[in-house]
Amino acid sequence: MTQALLMRYLLWPLVKFLGAFIVVQAIVAAMNWVERRLLGLIQARLGPNRVGWHGLLQIVADPIKFLLKEDIVPSSSEKVAYFLGPMLPLIPTFMVYCLIPFGPPPMFIAARVNVALLLVLALTSTGVYGIILGGWASNNKYSLMGGLRSAAQMVSYEVPFGLSIVGVLMICGSLDLVRIVDYQANNAWNLFPQIVAFFIFFVSMNAENNRTPFDLPEAESELVAGYHTEYSAMKFAFFMLAEYSAMIVNSCLVTLLFLGGWTMAIDGKGLTTQQLVSMGVLGGIIGLAIFLTKMMFFMFVYIWFRATFPRFRFDQLMDLGWKWMIPLALGNIVVTGVFVLIGQERLMYWIGLATLGAIGFHIFRKPVPAVKAKTAHEVAHAS
Amino acid sequence: MSLNDLIFLLPEIILATGASLLLIAPVTGLRDSISAKWAMIALLIITAGSLLACSWAVPGMEQTAGFARMFALDAFSIFFKLLFLFVVAIVVLLSDDFLRESRYSTWEYYSLLGFALCGMMFMASGVHLATIYIGLELLSLSSYILAGYYKNEQKSTEAAMKYFVLGAVSSAILLYGISLIYGVCGTLNLLDIARALSTVVSNDALMFGVILLACGLCFKIAAAPFHVWTPDVYEGAPTPITAFLSTGSKAAAFAIFVRIFYVALPGFHLDWSMVLATVAALSMIVGNLAAITQESVKRLLAYSSIAHAGYVLMGIVAMNVMGLRGVLVYSFVYVFANLGIWSIVLMMKRHEYAGEKVSDFEGLHSRSPFWAFSMFVFLLSLGGIPPTAGFIGKYFLFYAAVQAGFGWLAIIAVLMSAVSMFYYLRIVVAMYLRDGKEADVTASGALKFVAAVCVVATIVFGVVPNDLIDQVSSSAKGLHNKGAVTRNATR
Amino acid sequence: MTPAFAVFLIVGTIAVASSILVISMRNPVHSALFLLLTFLCVAVLFVMKGAEFVGAVQVLVYAGGIMVLFLFVVMLINVRHLPDEKVLSNFWKGGFAVGLGVFILFVAVVRPGVYHDEQLDKSRLTSVKERIWTESHKNPGTYTYRRVHRTNANSEAVGMALYTDYLVPFEVASLFLLVAMIGAIVIGKRELSATEEETAQQFILERVETEKEVKEAMSA
């Protein structure tokens, strides 16, 4: 009896967690190389290509370098806080892996909780402590400024981040991630009815992770390297690890909430959860593959963003968060509420689809030739 | 719960919306304090109108409770709400000069007053401890801010800080008491508590909870062992806010005090009556004796208001019809006398804080005999001397105490009233028998209007109190006639 | 000793110990971090009592939001250490005695049997009744509802309670927060002096003009 309980509640979740942990860490390590190569590609240069085949061994070389470098501790730093800083954000991020279903349940989820989404939000929101604590403990003005910026930024964007999810919850009626995915498989991706929420979620997610264009806490042109200026070797690596792990967590979330997670179905037809489960191990692998593909797409978009957008100014960042994102998210909740109240969720799908179509048309239409600049002569005559 | 329940809340909804609109009104370019004043007055009138319309339009709505029995619009709450609306309207008139002289933001001030009023109205109507508590907190938080509105003055900041820290602690104590009561009874609805307690014989945890609850409430009404904040806060706060704290916010605390103890805890009367009787006696003694030596009028009135809290507590201790009416009558007449005094104090004001010494009243009679006479009437009313309204209130309370077998409390009260006359007469002596320094009485029209209204009301209700007593009797009926409330509210 | 009780003992002890450390630390940042630990422990206790929603919100709001702002302010004014003066005032003996007295009173008073409901009624915390309206087949236009009882739905139960029975206090709480915000702004705002107020509008106009010019220069 006790053994069975132990198996069920301790050992088995632990194994699953370790599995998720290893996979995610592998992705993190790979991302290092992928990001640099991709940036190189976009910016018309090569990127790391010396170590191994196409620089692939860079994945191994970087950790070795981090391990072997000297671990410098500034003499005027707060020792305990300086030590804790890089560790703290890792704990909640790793805890989140227990809650995220990476594939069809019950195989690919360590612990299914009925308030999983809320817990994920709660845990990710504590990730900021490492950054502000590390920034403060370094006893360096630039580090402190980076920490403070990060605190302000993450608290500000937590609000639209949370509010944008509310619309999804109203449609799906659950905080359980598995049920949210099932709902999408039986209807359609939440991306369509919640296109606005998706947009807000995606932007806030970038800001939460301190990624470009919101990487003000580590803006090198202003703050040297921000909160991790004084960190070196493995401690610095931990910060990077936490950042990339959090990126993966957020990519998983956006996949689960808006893109139907491990399913590939519309209106209950296609690869729904039941379908995948009935296929046994193969179904599990297919589900996992679908999930990882969608997730990796968002990881790619992260990098794409980094290569495309210039950094915001801090007041612009705050303006965007408080004056645009939050009112927009609240408006989205009201609109969704009205549609749910009158029982016309289906209509929202069509509206979302039409919006997506319009956006797509706008992006892919033939580029308009640039307007010819007016000559001085014309300007003088026009006025 | 249904949409019809919203009618219960209509006045509060209007008030809260209006107060929020006051916040954003300056965006439209209206920035002067005069339009702010009239906007606020208009809001109060609309609220009062909607309150009366609600109580008339839906017959039989009295004594019923809406929103899953959270909120009642009975005669008792309507009585207190109208009183609060009146108090806030008067405070708005009193604030006018203060706001025009200072450079502090006007619209926010009125908006905060509106929210404080909203909290008071929720307190008067709450029949559920959650509603009552959150209403009380809304009032308290607005009061903390308003008490510190002279933010460049050290005294005002100190007052706000003291009020805030002590107020927060007392709220915590109150909440602790509520949680224990919930633990024992399993409900926070006042009627359900009474019903749950009808089967309980004696319970230490409940007793502890009730005592903690009483402690928290006694802080809010400034009764004796919990009174230390009062003089400092009353002295430091802007004078119109002092007027508000000593009348409106006190009356609201009395309203919930009465409702909680009369509706929810009558079964435990024997247990708590002695505790509250001690508090009442202590408040009367401490308040009146400490007031004697005060030089500052504000501090003097603060101590006297502590004593008045003691008088009103007698009505709650007595736990009979007379006591209940006494609390209502006393809250009513006390408002007029006290607001009148504060308006006269404001007239005497020369600069920000000075001009509030007893010696400043010297020779007031020779300068402006009418205002001296008004002050005299208000002081008589506070002392409870017959031709004024204060006498009626004291009569009810003393009679209730004697009727309930608390003769010794009534004796203390009478003795202490005599002591109070001593320091009230000090001001009278200063006004009539001393030569003044011939300084001006700077009275604006609003102040004169307030003082005149208050003096007329004080005398009229003292001479012909019948209407007031009838009104109070019908307002108190719903609360004391518990059967009626129970029957209707459980529908 | 059940496992749940063991967890309670451990987590509860950490919560109490860290809350004592909050008030005894000399460095405000350390205090804030121990307060964070207290919040997390309390969240665990909530979860153990079957209130997952409150536990999650405790972490989300207090640990993720409020404590960050605490730290933000502490770091912004950059107090590294409080001045080395006496930690305890002369009143500490009296305060300690009162605290101890209240504690003993609590222990004496709150004992098994005083509460109305010794067994925690978990069904109220975890299940939610829902009305589902359906149009009747026989005569269209009339609607009937049936109650659906769903279990394992703590957050829905809390939501239902907040938006139906406790609607009034819930909404008043929002007014309360609004007032707190107004208060912070009113007290924190610097009043403009008379000259500043006169020049302020001019300054804003000038700034707008400058921005326009810069934009034109950029686009040209």
Q: How do the helices and strands follow one another from N- to C-terminus of chain C?
A: HHHHHEEHHH
Instruction: Work out the helix count of chain B.
Output: 20
Alpha-carbon distance between the termini of chain C? 79 Å
Text of the CATH class of the largest domain in chain C: Mainly Alpha
β-strand percent of chain C reads 5-15%
Ends apart, CA distance between termini of chain B: 12 Å
- Ranges of chain B with pLDDT <50 over ≥5 residues? 482-491
Mean pLDDT of chain B: 83
Number of domains of chain B: 1
**Named CATH architecture of the largest domain in chain C:** Up-down Bundle
Radius of gyration of chain C over all CA atoms, rounded: 27 Å
Structural class of chain C: mainly alpha
Helix content of chain B: over 70%
At CATH level 3, the topology of the largest domain in chain C is Four Helix Bundle (Hemerythrin (Met), subunit A)
Describe the structure.
- The complex is a heterotrimer of chains A (383), B (491) and C (220).
- Chain A is mostly helical and 383 residues long.
- Chain A has helices spanning 2-42, 58-68, 79-87, 90-97, 116-125, 128-137, 141-172, 177-186, 195-208, 220-223, 233-258, 273-278, 281-308, 314-341, 345-364, 376-382, and strands spanning 264-266, 269-271.
- In chain B, helix 6 crosses helix 9 and helix 10 packs antiparallel against helix 13.
- Chain B has helices at residues 6-24, 33-57, 75-101, 106-125, 129-147, 154-185, 190-197, 204-221, 229-236, 239-264, 269-292, 297-318, 321-347, 364-367, 369-383, 389-403, 407-433, 445-463, 466-480, 482-489, and strands spanning 65-66, 71-72.
- Chain B has one domain (3-489).
- Chain B is mainly α and 491 residues long.
- The termini of chain B are close together.
- Chain C folds into 3 domains: 3-82, NADH-ubiquinone/plastoquinone oxidoreductase chain 6, subunit NuoJ (Four Helix Bundle (Hemerythrin (Met), subunit A)), CATH 1.20.120; 122-189, no CATH class; 190-220.
- Helices cover 68% and strands 7% of the residues of chain C.
- Chain C has 8 helices and 2 strands, in the order H-H-H-H-H-E-E-H-H-H.
- In chain C, strand 1 (128-135) and strand 2 (143-150) form a beta hairpin.
- Chain C is flat, with a radius of gyration of 27 Å.
- Classes of the chains: A mainly alpha (383), B mainly alpha (491), C mainly alpha (220).
